[in-house]
Write a structure and sequence with these properties.
- This protein is mostly helical.
- It is built from five helices and two strands; from the N terminus they run E-E-H-H-H-H-H.
- It has a domain of about 55 residues: Orthogonal Bundle (434 Repressor (Amino-terminal Domain)), CATH 1.10.260.
- Strands 1-2 form a two-stranded antiparallel sheet.
Length: about 120
């Protein structure tokens, strides 16, 4: 809630000279990005330096994608049809088959179940 730029509006009954009044809250000096950066720096400082951390996403192995593509072709399904059965976008199937997608174990297991793979 601190990140919202809120305007407080006070409504009064219009009558003899009474009007709506808007009061803007002062949000200056509340840079939340600085807080986030400070928290990340603190976490990084507390981290054990002997343990190497890899911040990259695990990518899809190309051999898994090729197996899925062969199974899909064996069932005479297009990428669009498979994506429709799984309720995902066709692009997700394409990225998995080409080995360019980010690894998603849940999606892989769904694909294998629909295609009858082990």
């Amino acid at each position: 809630m601190n990140q919202q730029d809120l305007k407080v509006t006070v409504l009064k009954k219009k009558g003899a000279g009474m009007q709506t009044e808007t009061i803007k809250k002062d949000t200056s000096g509340k840079n939340t990005q600085t807080k986030i950066t400070a928290n990340l720096n603190k976490l990084e400082a507390d981290r054990d330096p002997s343990v190497e951390v890899d911040y990259k996403h695990k990518m899809m192995p190309s051999d898994v994608g090729k197996e899925i593509q062969k199974a899909r072709d064996g069932k005479n399904l297009s990428r669009k049809q498979l994506a429709s059965q799984l309720s995902v976008k066709e692009k997700a199937i394409e990225e998995i088959e080409n080995g360019k997608g980010v690894y998603n174990g849940n999606l892989i297991s769904k694909i294998k179940r629909v295609l009858g793979m082990k």
